[in-house]
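Q: Please design a sequence for this.
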């Protein structure tokens, strides 16, 4: 069973040059899963929150590709808030973690590397259902 303490900040490689910087990410190197999907959140209106769900199986790496935002993590018992504001740090999240993304800066972009393709059946979208299942597994 995953806990919020299994969520970790991963420092990603940086290739710096006078013309700008580049960060590569490889499956099973910086992250413990094979990347099946990439998506990104952008044009987030001020004050909006994303997430508000958990995944049965999905693992992800979240990166603030531009700007910053906060990630509230909840395993059904404990809560943590992680601030992301550098494109060379990623937040690794195992499965069974409720997440809310909030306090997006203007122009903030959240890049996500995911272990599985999109599957609505993988979501818990009701917090009480998630908490009940998560606490039952513990
Ligand atoms: C998470 C945060 C960071 C797709 O069709 N394909 C996709 O790959 C995704 C992720 C979503 N969708 C559709 C499903 C919904 O109709 O886009 C709509 C919004 O999806 P969702 O509610 O998942 O969006 P967010 O931004 O609230 O959450 C997503 C991830 O689901 C979540 O795991 O950590 O981004």
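A: Design:
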């Amino acid at each position: 069973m995953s806990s919020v303490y299994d969520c970790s900040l991963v420092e990603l490689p940086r290739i710096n040059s006078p013309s700008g910087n580049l960060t590569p990410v490889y499956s099973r190197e910086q992250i413990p899963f094979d990347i099946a999907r990439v998506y990104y959140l952008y044009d987030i209106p001020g004050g909006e929150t994303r997430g508000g769900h958990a995944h049965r199986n999905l693992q992800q790496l979240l990166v603030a590709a531009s700007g910053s935002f906060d990630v509230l993590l909840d395993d059904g018992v404990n809560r943590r808030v992680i601030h992301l504001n550098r494109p060379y740090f990623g937040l690794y999240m195992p499965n069974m973690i409720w997440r809310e993304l909030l306090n997006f800066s203007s122009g903030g972009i959240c890049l996500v590397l995911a272990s599985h393709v999109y599957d609505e059946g993988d979501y818990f979208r009701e917090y009480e259902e998630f908490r009940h299942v998560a606490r039952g597994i513990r």
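Q: Thanks. Anything notable?
A: DSSP finds one helix and twelve strands in the chain. The chain has a mean pLDDT of 97.
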